[in-house]
Amino acid sequence: MRDRPTGSESEADQAGAAAQPQPERRRWPRDPPVQPMAPGVAPAALTPLHFSTGELQPAEQFQAWRAHMAPLVEVRLPDSVPPENGFVAEQTAWHCGNLLIVQQRAPGHSYLRPQAMLRASPIDHWYVELLQSGMTWTEVDRRVGENGPGRLAFRSLACPFRGRATAADAVLLFMPYELFADDIAVLGEANNLVLSGNLADLLITYIEGIVPRLDRLTAEEIPRIVHTVHDMVVACVASSARPDAAGPQTNKGMMERAHRHIHLNLHSAELTPDSIARAIGISRTRLYQLFEASGGVLNYIRRRRLQQAYAALSDPTDHRPIAEIAEAAGFDVAANFTRAFSHEFGVSPREIRKAAATERPIAPVAPAGRHRGSTIGDWLKALGN
């Protein structure tokens, strides 16, 4: 250990130091060194999608939120709140193939998914709402489900609903109908169900464990997580089902049977309104009534086939020519397929195929004439791809 300098030495050192120009000290921390990725560790597979009204002028914020949410629900401010007061809302979404995880923060508002919206919307997903703060009250078929912090609600976007929310933080899990096509008997009458019990607590713990790790998940881990979420949701719904759910077959039950038949026979040339009606044991007129809110049964089939085509074009291991994929989607003329595909997703089939080849997938974007930029509806259209 060095001896402590004497007083004279210390004074000389200080004098010498004073004579030398002093370099300017940096007043901000240095950037941390980049840590090399450990050998054998796969890179993260997810890139978040963001939406926020925070950078807009207060008078513009609520209109931007309305436009972003318009494909899903109509949103309105409370009667006592003018739009000029501002509406700072934000979403961060993570596209996991058959699962869209959305972290959302929004002030109080009301929301409505009317019957008319279902006619023009291809969105019929199931979703789970996990509130971290705030409250929601959602009415479906005159039954109100109340959800609060640390609780789960399970709903279908294939049915009209309305409700209101206080200022809230939430995690929303959207899953396409096809993911639950084999679980109709369990889910058919579970719409707007608030989940409870030990299994619901386990699902909440699982979701809360996933969310902080989304930016680190690998491509190999994502399908396993989706499979686990699916199984846990079905188990939770089964254990939380209402005692009166096993009553006579309702319109919802018949619709679920029709959806499942379409899903299982999507690429069959024999898939027609007549064959569907025979398979589920109803008249063709009744079938048309069931699908009236979806824009008609043929329109529903067409949208499902286009979504399957999107999935095939997004798969780098699927080397079929675009014309063959178009034919499987029910299009004999390539130009008609390209036109319908571009209208539905805002990008051409060739763009999706090119992006898949470079392993840089792109999500559908809003076509010209709709809302500026991508909306939550565009995020949901990419599910299953």
Structure overview:
The protein has 385 residues and is α+β, with helices and mostly antiparallel strands. The protein has two domains: 49-245, Jelly Rolls (Sandwich), CATH 2.60.120; 251-381, Homeodomain-like (Arc Repressor Mutant, subunit A, Orthogonal Bundle), CATH 1.10.10.60. It has 14 helices and twelve strands. It has helices spanning 7-19, 58-69, 115-120, 184-187, 198-210, 221-240, 251-264, 273-280, 284-290, 297-314, 322-328, 334-345, 349-357, 376-381, and strands spanning 49-52, 74-76, 90-95, 100-106, 109-113, 126-133, 136-140, 143-147, 152-156, 161-165, 168-175, 193-195. It has a seven-stranded antiparallel beta sheet with strand order 1-3-4-11-6-9-12, covered by helices on one side. A five-stranded antiparallel beta sheet has the order 2-5-10-7-8. A hairpin with a 2-residue loop joins strand 7 (136-140) and strand 8. The protein is globular. It starts with 6 loop residues before the first helix and ends with a helix. GO terms for molecular function: DNA-binding transcription factor activity; sequence-specific DNA binding. It comes from Rhizobium fredii (Sinorhizobium fredii). This is AraC family transcriptional regulator. Pfam families: HTH_18 (PF12833).
